[in-house]
Amino acid sequence: MSSKNRYPVLPSRMTLMQLKIRLKGAEKGHSLLKKKSDALNMKFRKILTEIKDVKEGMSDTFRHASISLAEAQRASDDISFAVVKSVKTAATRVKLRTDNIAGVALPVFQEAEVSKEQHFSMLNKGGEQVAKCAQAYRDTLSTLIRLASLQTSFVTLDEAIKVTNRRVNALEKVVIPKIQNSIDYVTSELDEEEREDFYRLKKVRNKKLEDQKRKKEERKKLYGEQKARELEEEEKLLEAEVSDGIAVGVASGNSNTGLGEDVDADLF
């Protein structure tokens, strides 16, 4: 396995446990980011549909406003002086608030109307035509504010979706495969160490058996078969006595600590 496709780790049980924890966290993070991306995409498509509807209706709104302006100008020759005189403060203000969509703050523009009361004193219904024209342009302004809010949210969502998708792809294509390859590498190394230990123990056991067999053959040559059998029995008795002595020592140690009273009673 190439070292470029995994993390540089030392093969051990602790490392394996840490890698499994990291893998679980990465998979959970990938799942959450995937859900976030789906939620952002749903909101993105909804805003796109609203932008399309608003832009399709803007032509009628602007046409109505232009017609109202032409009618107001026809009703009275010059309305600029009357309009400037009637305006004291801004009739419309815009407030900014934010909507939280899956952890992404979307700016939303809200229209805050201060005052709509404007009086035009003109002849031959000129004031009425100017008021209609002002209302038409207020509607146009409301449409523009809504469109600006939607387009700002659209751009913000587009950037957030790109960032989220990059993170999802990084986890899915880079991080999780690297962690999985690292786990496979550590597991294979640990399995290899276990096989080496088993082979080593097997060789040691075979070596001991060969030594015992060789000693038996040497005794038979030196002392004869009967004498070699007696020596083997003596060695077995000696080993048994040593084992009993070790057991008695352990029992006496337990009695000194107050834990081996029953063992002492059985021995004596």
Write the layout of secondary structure elements.
Layout: H1 13-75, H2 80-86, E1 92-101, E2 104-113, H3 126-256, H4 261-267
Antiparallel strand pairs: 1-2
Helix pairs in contact: 1-3, 3-4
Helix segment tally: 4
Structural class: mainly alpha
Query: What is the tally of beta strands?
Result: 2
Identify the strand order in the major beta sheet.
1-2
Order of secondary-structure elements = HHEEHH
Largest sheet: 2 strands, antiparallel
Beta content comes to 5-15%
List keywords for this structure.
268 residues; mainly alpha; two-stranded antiparallel sheet; 4 helices; 7% strand; rod-shaped; disordered C terminus
Please sum up the structure shown:
By secondary structure, the chain is mainly alpha-helical.
Any overview of this molecule?
The protein has helices at residues 13-75, 80-86, 126-256, 261-267; strands spanning 92-101, 104-113. With 268 residues, the chain is mainly alpha-helical. Strand 1 and strand 2 form a beta hairpin. Helix 1 packs antiparallel against helix 3 (126-256). The longest helix is centred in the C-terminal third of the chain and has 131 residues, at 126-256.
